[in-house]
Fold this sequence. Notes:
The protein folds into two domains: 9-109 and 268-553, Aminopeptidase (3-Layer(aba) Sandwich), CATH 3.40.630; 115-260, Glucose Oxidase, domain 1. It has helices at 9-19, 52-62, 75-91, 162-165, 183-188, 204-207, 233-236, 308-318, 332-348, 362-381, 403-410, 463-475, 501-505, 534-553, and strands at residues 94-95, 103-106, 108-113, 118-121, 124-125, 132-135, 140-153, 169-174, 194-198, 211-214, 228-231, 252-260, 262-266, 271-278, 289-295, 301-307, 355-358, 389-395, 419-425, 436-439, 445-447, 452-456, 481-483, 511-515. Helix 2 (52-62) packs across helix 10, helix 2 packs across helix 14 (534-553) and helix 12 packs across helix 14 (534-553). It is built from 14 helices and 24 strands. The model is unreliable at 5-26 (pLDDT under 50). The strands form five sheets. Strands 1, 2, 14, 15, 18, 19, 22, 23 and 24 form a nine-stranded mixed β-sheet that branches. It has an eight-stranded mixed β-sheet with strand order 5-4-12-7-8-9-11-6. The protein has a three-stranded antiparallel β-sheet with strand order 10-3-13, with no helix packed on it. By secondary structure, the chain is α/β, with parallel strands linked by helices.
Amino acid sequence: MRSFILVSSIALLPALLGAQTEQASHSAVVPQPPTQLPLKHAPQPTTAAITAADLMTRLYIFADDSMQGREAGTIGNVKGTDYIAGEVKRLGLQPAGDSGSYFQTIPFKTRTLDPASTVSVGGTPMAVGTEWAAISQDSASGTDVPTVFGGTLGDSASIISPEQGAGKVVVFAFGPNSPRTGPSVAKVAMNAVAIGLILPPQFLSFVARPQQFVDNPGATPPGASKATIYLTPMSATKLFDDPVAQLKSGTGGKAISFTVRSRVEPVPFPARNVVAILPGSDPKLKGEYVAIGAHNDHVGFNHTPVDHDSIRIFNHIVRPGGAENQGARATPEQQAEVNTLLANWRSSHPGTSRPDSISNGADDDGSGSVSVLEIAEKLVAQNPKPKRSILFVWHVGEEKGLLGSAFFTDHPTVPRDSIVTQLNIDMVGRGDAWDMTGTTKEGAEIHGNPNYLQVVGARRLSTELGDVLEKVNTEGKHKLSLDYAIDANGHPANIYCRSDHYEYARYGIPIAFFTTGGHSDYHQVTDEPEYIDYDHMAKVDNFIGDLLVRLANLDHRVLVDHPKPNPMAACQQ
Length: 573
């Protein structure tokens, strides 16, 4: 699942700022059971049935260290997508990618700031990297452009009107309630020449990093292509006479001159969706598709190994949501508990220190990827086949901002209107009592159980889809405990907007998103196959497979009875 704090440079800043002062206050941590599964597992032949053994075989392959964390645009992701394509070919699914292949390659590129770029105030150049950084989709320049302080993002009362920013460089400050996505900035500064953002100096090097994006003309929200100049509070004083904290919205500043150019290059390795079709059995309905998908990428690896076991113990006690609790620090009581558990572990496992730098993504989203493969293998063996065709898509770049699913829905390899609904599977390998699977809208912790499954978005476009889902669970005697708490309108986690299903929903395609929720290994090097609950995952997958068949066999398309969204608008749960 895409991290809420890993979307873009603009998206990251509030979370990073908040992480500086966040304190841990988790009180309902359930002790983890001893790990029973091995670090490595010899693969076994898979069968037509959806079984824990099959899922275990597949996931130990797909989330192995050899895949290097499957980051989009790397050789590790190429290896992962090769594995998926090899499996769907073996199963006999029809290729539905580019040029008769199983792959749809997205134009994934890297943008860096050209060293020749300049920013100056009153004819005096500012130092790139220490006083400013910038990013622009296209070359942008301006000479003696007026500046104006636009207010603090997230404080709607302080934000100036678009008319006040017309023809100027509009400079915003970040505050504790600043939004974590950029479209709101672009909307306010629609008529501006460029955007300025003031942030602490320690984050300047972060926003100056190469930016990865999909070169997808026509898919960019209006105004989002404006040059963005990042300033520190100190460099902002060269524009405004008062300190940032004392600036009032609408305050004019000194004129600024800038030339911002970018260098754009393709990523080193292809970033690929894997797309395949199981043709339907009904001549009248086979031209319609029920889509099912997961994301094939994760977040790769780093060059600074950590001790696997100690970080896993620490995170479970102090950061039970993993990356969701990034920056949380241990209370004295928690640190004492961590020290005790770690001492006990080392005493019972002498000489087993395990340096680890690979984020294997076993649950995120290895679990979803192999689940879709298992469901595909079951349907291939089933007779008769579902009436409608089944469209299988393993999306790339979900962790980069839903890039592969956005590209696929903008450039579908089947007619977009022929997709009846989409089922998305992302992180279905956990969900037990010791996992903090999320929080309610009010902030209460949620923990799983042996039959736990979160459902998101199933009634947001189609009430009928949600009803059919419930019936399949009941009539199929799956007995899953369906949790809708994370789907609440206005939930701060914004889960509805954070995985690939949304890219279908924005075009009015009804979706249902399935996950067993978060845990302390989320987006950590400890998200390994040995910590997955394969029996639990098999229960979930059998249910989703039955739902897929029920939807494919309906005598009508599920009814869309809610307004379709604007596909170019920002998502808000």
